[in-house]
Amino acid sequence: MADFDVMVIGSGTVAQNVVPRCAEAGLRVAVVDRLPYGGTCSRRGCDPKKVLLAGAEAVGRVRMLAGEGLVGEPRIDWPALMARKRTFTEPVAPRIEGWLGGSGAETLHGEARIVATGEVEVDGERHRTAEIVVASGARPMPLGIAGEELVTTSDEFLELDELPARVALIGGGYISFEFAWLARMAGREVTILHRSARALKGFDEHLAAALVERYRALGIRVLLEAPVSRVRREPAGLVVESAAGEVTADLVVHGAGRVADVDRLGLDAIGVAFGRRGVRVNEHMRSVSDRHVWAAGDAADIGLPLTPVASRQGKVVAAGILGEEASYDGRAVPSVVFSDPPLAAVGMSTAEADESGGAVTVKRVDMSGWFTQRRLGQTHAGAAVVAAAAGGRLLGAHVLGVDAEEVINVFALAIRQELTAQDLLATTWSYPTAGSDIPYMV
User: Fold this and answer.
1) CATH number of 335-441
2) What's residue 5's pLDDT?
3) Which of 14, 92, 341, 370 suits a disulfide with 135, CB 3.0-4.6 Å?
């Protein structure tokens, strides 16, 4: 007899969808984590980031309306803002561990390593299990540069008790753009160094370029074609060496992406195939190498590395373990950069549309002068909507501007339900709202 029917490695979003369902079905379930329970999103990712960004939103909103009826300016008290963030994050570990344990699962702590088929070792103690679920998340990608030990990770940034005066961020992805805005609204000198000519490569090129322009207007240095080769410590501070020259800062932050945190798990001991993106799985989230190994979220090689994706995939894993037919459908998954303004995307990219040979159209609009944007003092906004040339079925949407993070959800639903531009035009929208701009986007 195995010690467990199911053992889940990791206690984040995937585990929170797998463990209770399997335990309540009567299976013997264990969950193990080397870190406090709760995973990335609620403890050191999405949620704490958004709490901190509330400060940037408030300061930014007032600055955009300075001289337009508002006087004075709020100031971010970084230690107080961080203290508020901890009221959200500190209760997470005991709450999640208590909930998972209360569902009937055994909660374990320590480094998990697969040592043989159906055997997982946790800090020297072996456990047998019929099914293994890899839900170990992701970690910062190795930079491979000299002085890498001087670079602060995103996890560490979200725990800083003090934010120094000069901040440099390596990488031009969503982490850097979100942290850069936060630091700038806190009054810091901020530089982003990105290795190629185009930042935010997962998003529409024109809208990403408009966001770069906006950031530069805010006083954020965005250096493109600036691959970093070294970070060194000097009396004046940390010096970042790049192809665009040297930048001196007090804090250098890793914003160059993440990789699946699976190579330490011993998957190769049982022949489970994996790579930088995670365990290689099929649409049922089952390993293509071992039918008793499952993976989901940032630890699986399909789907975007987003919390809602992890949640959906976790449900698929639980259903599969319980003998139900389920598969992951990654169509119409929205993603958002919580920048100023937000940048959002869902469905087919504009680059893919341009390569369609005329079968797909792209409608672009400049929204910078629209009421929704001007009302709040926003200066950079636009949209690109992708639709089938025949029939107008919506295939993709890309939005930069006020409330883009909410507008994109409407497009996600429309794409998922195979609606057309005409369907959205025929809808009556509440007004004046960002949603009421949608008919003009299509």
Assistant:
1) 3.30.390.30
2) 97
3) 14
CA distances in angstroms from 36 to 32, 124, 165, 169, 397, listed in the order given: 10, 19, 31, 27, 38
- pTM, two decimals, is 0.94
The tokens for 368 are: 């910078």
CATH 3.50.50.60 fits domain 4-61+76-140+259-321: yes
Judge whether residue 1 has pLDDT over 60: no
Q: Is 345 left (phi over 0), alpha (psi -120 to 50) or beta?
A: beta
Q: Mean pLDDT, the chain, as a whole number?
A: 96
Is the CB of residue 269 less than 8 Å from the CB of residue 114? yes
Amino acid letter, 104: G
Cis peptide upstream of residue 308 (ω within 30 degrees of 0) = no
| Angle at the Cα of 435 from the Cα atoms of 432 and 439, rounded to 5 degrees | 100
> Is there a contact between 426 and 399 (Cβ–Cβ < 8 Å)?
no
Tell me the pLDDT tens digit for each residue of 41-61: 999 899 999 999 999 999 999
Strand partners, 281: 287
Most confident of 70-74, 355-359, 413-417: 413-417
* pLDDT confidence bin for 268, thresholds 50/70/90: very high
Mean pLDDT on 392-417? 97
User: How remote is the C-alpha of 180 from its chain's centroid?
Assistant: 16
The CB density around residue 366, as the number of other CB atoms within 10 Å, is: 12
CA distances from 366 to 379, 382, 385, 433 (A): 11, 4, 12, 17
Fold for domain 148-256?
Answer: FAD/NAD(P)-binding domain (3.50.50)
The reply to whether 148-256 shares the fold of 4-61+76-140+259-321 is: yes
Structure tokens, 352: 């893919």
